[in-house]
């Protein structure tokens, strides 16, 4: 992806962590037959359609995720202009240094414990489990990883806290972020208030309307919320605006990207900051029943909450990993956000991944009742896990998600986010297929306060 008015093939390349090109004797691993501009309202984005398909190595345990070039197989990389290369290299160097910095890790752990409220509970959903019992009384056991109980009400705070600390170490006092459902925006505004940092949040105008509560929360926390009216005025367009700001102010600004998308090192870095979800799940499962979960389930938009849960278990071949996307009005309707189900490989926002695009490489606008899943791309590691066959990905419609939203509220007294509701809805299809006693852990990625106004329009009581 090249953020300039002049697009050329040289901009559409992968780069190593030292920002050097591939050796002259080594051809880049992929070839493009098409480099096309986004619609004219977004001149800073391009999509690249691939002509070649690479085979994946077979065994997850021996694979680097990512490799030295920031790639997950053929996915990921750095598709950015030279303006951002230094900032990305600086960020990667700082991240690797802080990974072994005892003082940084101690400070981060303390904030996660005393400010965020970790560890989050692994809750046995007794009545939901009862709901899925078969006539013979047998069925799976369902546990919820309660990320909705974190400060700010979602998993997003894990990454926001860590990146804010990292930004302070880099001497960056101005923070920008993108947000769709508003939870990442609220988390970023929260940590900026906590650390005294300037905060600017980019949010699509359409998302601002359907997530008015979170817009107010961000402003109350002292953030400036900048509405984005270009394109469909949703998450994709907010991300483009945030990157445009970063290109312009790269010396003074740190971009707290909210998902496992974007150019390297963001997919790796955000994953590591959310990996605490899976690590806690393994520990808690061992304490509760002396083993591992059999099945992990999480919703997937960009994919941060899912990869945070999955990462700890990728090498455990006896643990199923299931991601659930937004089918919107149905995957055959053309109005959905089921990127891994219906997408093709291309480049968006600095990384190669599956995208919703037409035959000319133009982005097909997504749809979901959930603002947090309304994105035409997905994190490159999810694309890798899909092609590898290590993770399974399915899709759930708006209507199915709303029913699950209501179901969990009434059975467990927990109002889930509409994002989480997609994962919960998939239990309707999954549970009848599972042997008795199968232990299912579903990541309850956020609470549903923010979605009540949306739900009111559709649910009749």
Structure description:
The structure is a single chain. The chain has 461 residues and is α/β, with parallel strands linked by helices. Helix content is 37%, strand content 18%. The protein contains 16 helices and 16 strands. The strands form five sheets. The chain has a six-stranded mixed beta sheet, sandwiched between helices. Strands 9-8-7-10 form a four-stranded parallel beta sheet, sandwiched between helices. Strand 7, helix 5 and strand 8 form a beta-alpha-beta unit. Helix 4 packs across helix 5. It is globular, with a radius of gyration of 21 Å. 54% of the residues are buried. The N terminus is likely disordered.
Alpha-beta content class: alpha/beta
In terms of DSSP E residues, the strand content is: 15-25%
Number of strands: 16
> What is the CA-atom radius of gyration, in angstroms?
21 Å
Through-space gap between termini: 47 Å
As residue ranges, the low-confidence spans are 1-58
Spatial order of the strands in the main sheet? 5-6-16-11-12-15
- The coarse silhouette is globular
Largest sheet: 6 strands, mixed
Helical coverage, percent range: 25-40%
Strand and helix layout:
Blueprint: E1 32-37, E2 46-50, E3 71-72, E4 75-76, H1 82-99, H2 102-116, E5 122-124, H3 126-131, E6 141-146, H4 156-170, E7 174-179, H5 183-195, E8 198-204, H6 205-210, H7 212-220, E9 224-228, H8 235-248, E10 253-255, H9 266-274, H10 276-289, E11 295-299, H11 304-310, E12 320-328, H12 339-342, E13 344-348, E14 351-355, H13 380-388, E15 391-397, H14 398-412, H15 418-430, E16 439-444, H16 452-456
Parallel strand pairs: 6-16, 7-8, 7-10, 8-9, 11-12, 11-16, 12-15
Antiparallel strand pairs: 1-2, 3-4, 5-6, 13-14
Helix pairs in contact: 2-4, 4-5, 4-9, 5-7, 9-11, 10-11, 14-15
């Amino acid at each position: 992806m090249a953020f300039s008015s002049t697009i050329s093939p040289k901009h559409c390349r992968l780069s190593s962590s030292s920002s050097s090109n591939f050796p002259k004797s080594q051809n880049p691993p992929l070839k493009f037959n098409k480099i096309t501009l986004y619609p004219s309202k977004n001149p800073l984005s391009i999509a690249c359609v691939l002509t070649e398909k690479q085979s994946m190595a077979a065994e997850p345990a021996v694979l680097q995720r990512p490799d030295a070039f920031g790639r997950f197989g053929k996915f990921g990389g750095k598709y950015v202009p030279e303006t951002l290369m230094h900032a990305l290299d600086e960020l990667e160097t700082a991240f690797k240094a802080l990974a072994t910095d005892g003082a940084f890790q101690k400070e981060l752990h303390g904030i996660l414990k005393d400010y965020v409220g970790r560890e989050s509970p692994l809750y046995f959903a007794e009545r939901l489990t009862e709901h899925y019992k078969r006539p013979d009384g047998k069925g799976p056991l369902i546990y919820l990883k309660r990320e909705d109980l974190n400060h700010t009400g979602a998993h997003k705070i894990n990454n926001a806290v860590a990146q804010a600390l990292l930004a302070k170490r880099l001497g960056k006092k101005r923070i920008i972020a993108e947000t769709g459902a508003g939870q990442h925006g609220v988390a970023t505004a929260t940590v900026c208030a906590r650390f005294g940092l300037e905060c600017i949040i980019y949010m699509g105008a359409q998302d601002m309307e359907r997530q008015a509560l979170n817009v107010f929360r961000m402003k109350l926390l002292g953030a400036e919320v900048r509405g984005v009216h270009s394109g469909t005025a949703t998450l994709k367009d907010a991300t483009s605006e945030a990157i445009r700001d970063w290109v312009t102010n790269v010396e003074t600004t740190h971009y707290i990207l909210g998902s496992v998308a974007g150019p390297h090192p963001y997919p790796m870095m955000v994953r590591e900051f959310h990996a605490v979800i899976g690590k806690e799940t393994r520990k808690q499962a061992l304490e509760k029943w002396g083993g591992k979960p059999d099945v992990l389930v999480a919703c997937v938009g960009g994919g941060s909450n899912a990869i945070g849960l999955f990462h700890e278990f990728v090498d455990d071949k006896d643990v199923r990993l299931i991601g659930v996307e937004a089918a919107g009005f149905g995957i055959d309707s053309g109005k959905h956000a089921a990127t891994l189900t219906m997408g093709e490989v291309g480049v968006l926002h600095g990384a190669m991944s599956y995208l919703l695009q037409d035959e000319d490489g133009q982005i097909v606008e997504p749809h979901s009742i959930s603002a947090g899943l309304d994105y035409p791309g997905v994190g490159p590691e999810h694309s890798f896990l899909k092609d590898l066959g290590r993770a399974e990905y399915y899709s759930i419609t708006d209507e199915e998600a709303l029913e699950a939203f209501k179901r969990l509220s009434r059975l467990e007294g927990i109002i889930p986010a509409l994002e989480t509701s997609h994962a919960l809805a998939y239990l309707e299809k999954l549970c009848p297929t599972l042997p008795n006693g199968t232990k299912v852990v579903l990541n309850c990625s956020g609470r549903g306060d923010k979605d009540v106004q949306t739900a009111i329009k559709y649910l009749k009581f």
